[in-house]
Amino acid sequence: MKIAVVGTGYVGLVTGTCFAETGNDVTCVDIDKTKVEKLSSGQITIYEPGLEKLFLRNVKEERLRFTTSLYEGVKDAEIVFLALPTPPGEDGSADLKYILGVAKDLGELMTDYKVIVDKSTVPVGTAEKVYAAISKTYVGDFDVVSNPEFLREGVAVEDFMKPDRVVIGASSERARKVMGELYAPFVRSGNPIIFMDVRSAELTKYAANSFLATKISFMNEVAQLCERLGADVDMVRRGIGSDDRIGKRFLFPGIGYGGSCFPKDVQALVKSSNEVDYDFQILNAVMEVNKKQKLHLLPKIKKFFKNDLKGKRFALWGLAFKPNTDDIREAPALYIIDELVKEGARVCAYDPEAINNVRNLLGNKIEYAENQYDCLEGADALIIATEWNEFRTPNFLKIVTALKNKVIFDGRNLFETDAIKELGFYYESVGRAVAVPATGVKH
Ligand SMILES: NC(=O)c1ccc[n+]([C@@H]2O[C@H](COP(=O)([O-])OP(=O)(O)OC[C@H]3O[C@@H](n4cnc5c(N)ncnc54)[C@H](O)[C@@H]3O)[C@@H](O)[C@H]2O)c1
Ligand SMILES: O=c1ccn([C@@H]2O[C@H](COP(=O)(O)OP(=O)(O)O[C@H]3O[C@H](CO)[C@@H](O)[C@H](O)[C@H]3O)[C@@H](O)[C@H]2O)c(=O)[nH]1
């Protein structure tokens, strides 16, 4: 099939590449000239495990190309995916200006039947608005379909190639048939393509993200309770997660959910609810809990240093909002940095992939290290904000040698508390007992 993907960011590039991988002819469109030039010259623009290999193969096979011209991209396409940003507007609702702007342009360009697919996360009723925007200038036959994307960054290729399910909201048999054929290679193991009406598909995406965010905030509140009651959240997590009805996944407490999706999507669903006079009470609490949780380590750090962080030096491991990505949108690490710097502390950070993005955002507000051990040099404590695998079994001897104090504040519960205490560290994590070494701690 001939496919256009409009918007070549995290979702668009993965979508375009994976459809090319299954033999389709894909043109990705983006307004960012530099991005298109880079991609056209065979350079990948995001870090996503497994993507580069597929990207290079399909560019070489000429099944995947890039352009800044919407006309060039869509002129021969049977299916046009919109993978455009839907950032929060001033009031928290999803801003549809990118989607509706491109829809209007499509109306002016289209000359034959196409299936227009909302891949972006969009509020209920958006497909109808896209249909209306195109219809203003194009009078021929076309369909608008909702096909929300459920991929997670860091495992995006795997999620896209082997989805748990594909949701397709379509009102015409013709569009359902086209979409069913397109996705057939991705569901060969038997996972379902779930066809439904357009509005239900649009809501499914927000409901899925909001439910997952609720699970995380719930566990973060259980962690708060554990700290106060002397229980261990890892034990409680395993105790409840082994019940199939609850499930093991998305129960990890930490320093709050971040990223480009959960924060904005929970907020947008609350806003959509308000617009139809419904107060989605649980989600208001989910957002409130998450706001506090992002700074969960701060009072612990301040208390340890007797409320005086001026001139203190902190090593920070992890800047990306989660491991295996370079994405720093709504990353908890950024909130922690902001607070530490406000208090007069200095921060030296290391992340395997996200340093360039943070440097572009923060410049020399903080220092950056070449590797995880360099940033420990002379630091008063180590803070862990992202659970990259390489942080899980570090060389503790190097940590001890470089750090000024053997003190770790861990927002991702990477280490066993007893083991780390044995190594002589003072160690605070989330929802577990504070580990104080028998020898006490100097600072
Ligand atoms: N990132 C994820 O993990 C993820 C997963 C599922 C769904 N989503 C949803 O998918 C959508 C896209 O998210 P993303 O993370 O890929 O965003 P992104 O910001 O990484 O990419 C969007 C791209 O669209 C381009 N763009 C903007 N205006 C354009 C225009 N008029 N014409 C062509 N290109 C244009 C931008 O230059 C950018 O490259 C959002 O609605 C998001 O909520 C994201
Ligand atoms: O047990 C957990 C699981 C996740 N997180 C945090 O939750 C956030 C989101 O993680 P994850 O869902 O793995 O990453 P995303 O790439 O943001 O993916 C989510 O958002 C995407 C965009 O809508 C959806 O497509 C995915 O299905 C949905 O999982 C991150 O900050 C994680 O650290 C936790 O704190 N505890």
TrEMBL record:
<dbReference type="GO" id="GO:0000271">
    <property type="term" value="P:polysaccharide biosynthetic process"/>
</dbReference>
<dbReference type="InterPro" id="IPR001732">
    <property type="entry name" value="UDP-Glc/GDP-Man_DH_N"/>
</dbReference>
<dbReference type="GO" id="GO:0003979">
    <property type="term" value="F:UDP-glucose 6-dehydrogenase activity"/>
</dbReference>
<dbReference type="InterPro" id="IPR008927">
    <property type="entry name" value="6-PGluconate_DH-like_C_sf"/>
</dbReference>
<dbReference type="InterPro" id="IPR036291">
    <property type="entry name" value="NAD(P)-bd_dom_sf"/>
</dbReference>
<dbReference type="Pfam" id="PF03721">
    <property type="entry name" value="UDPG_MGDP_dh_N"/>
</dbReference>
<comment type="similarity">
    <text>Belongs to the UDP-glucose/GDP-mannose dehydrogenase family.</text>
</comment>
<feature type="binding site">
    <location>
        <begin position="250"/>
        <end position="254"/>
    </location>
    <ligand>
        <name>substrate</name>
    </ligand>
</feature>
<dbReference type="InterPro" id="IPR028357">
    <property type="entry name" value="UDPglc_DH_bac"/>
</dbReference>
<keyword id="KW-0560">Oxidoreductase</keyword>
<feature type="binding site">
    <location>
        <position position="264"/>
    </location>
    <ligand>
        <name>NAD(+)</name>
    </ligand>
</feature>
<dbReference type="InterPro" id="IPR017476">
    <property type="entry name" value="UDP-Glc/GDP-Man"/>
</dbReference>
<comment type="pathway">
    <text>Nucleotide-sugar biosynthesis; UDP-alpha-D-glucuronate biosynthesis; UDP-alpha-D-glucuronate from UDP-alpha-D-glucose: step 1/1.</text>
</comment>
<dbReference type="InterPro" id="IPR036220">
    <property type="entry name" value="UDP-Glc/GDP-Man_DH_C_sf"/>
</dbReference>
<dbReference type="Pfam" id="PF00984">
    <property type="entry name" value="UDPG_MGDP_dh"/>
</dbReference>
<dbReference type="GO" id="GO:0006065">
    <property type="term" value="P:UDP-glucuronate biosynthetic process"/>
</dbReference>
<comment type="function">
    <text>Catalyzes the conversion of UDP-glucose into UDP-glucuronate, one of the precursors of teichuronic acid.</text>
</comment>
<feature type="binding site">
    <location>
        <position position="322"/>
    </location>
    <ligand>
        <name>substrate</name>
    </ligand>
</feature>
<dbReference type="GO" id="GO:0051287">
    <property type="term" value="F:NAD binding"/>
</dbReference>
<feature type="binding site">
    <location>
        <position position="86"/>
    </location>
    <ligand>
        <name>NAD(+)</name>
    </ligand>
</feature>
<dbReference type="InterPro" id="IPR014026">
    <property type="entry name" value="UDP-Glc/GDP-Man_DH_dimer"/>
</dbReference>
<feature type="binding site">
    <location>
        <position position="258"/>
    </location>
    <ligand>
        <name>substrate</name>
    </ligand>
</feature>
<dbReference type="Pfam" id="PF03720">
    <property type="entry name" value="UDPG_MGDP_dh_C"/>
</dbReference>
<feature type="domain" description="UDP-glucose/GDP-mannose dehydrogenase C-terminal">
    <location>
        <begin position="315"/>
        <end position="417"/>
    </location>
</feature>
<feature type="binding site">
    <location>
        <position position="121"/>
    </location>
    <ligand>
        <name>NAD(+)</name>
    </ligand>
</feature>
<feature type="binding site">
    <location>
        <position position="30"/>
    </location>
    <ligand>
        <name>NAD(+)</name>
    </ligand>
</feature>
<feature type="binding site">
    <location>
        <position position="205"/>
    </location>
    <ligand>
        <name>substrate</name>
    </ligand>
</feature>
<dbReference type="InterPro" id="IPR014027">
    <property type="entry name" value="UDP-Glc/GDP-Man_DH_C"/>
</dbReference>
<protein>
    <recommendedName>
        <fullName>UDP-glucose 6-dehydrogenase</fullName>
        <ecNumber>1.1.1.22</ecNumber>
    </recommendedName>
</protein>
<keyword id="KW-0520">NAD</keyword>
<feature type="active site" description="Nucleophile">
    <location>
        <position position="261"/>
    </location>
</feature>
<feature type="binding site">
    <location>
        <position position="329"/>
    </location>
    <ligand>
        <name>NAD(+)</name>
    </ligand>
</feature>
<feature type="binding site">
    <location>
        <position position="35"/>
    </location>
    <ligand>
        <name>NAD(+)</name>
    </ligand>
</feature>
<feature type="binding site">
    <location>
        <begin position="150"/>
        <end position="153"/>
    </location>
    <ligand>
        <name>substrate</name>
    </ligand>
</feature>
<feature type="binding site">
    <location>
        <position position="153"/>
    </location>
    <ligand>
        <name>NAD(+)</name>
    </ligand>
</feature>
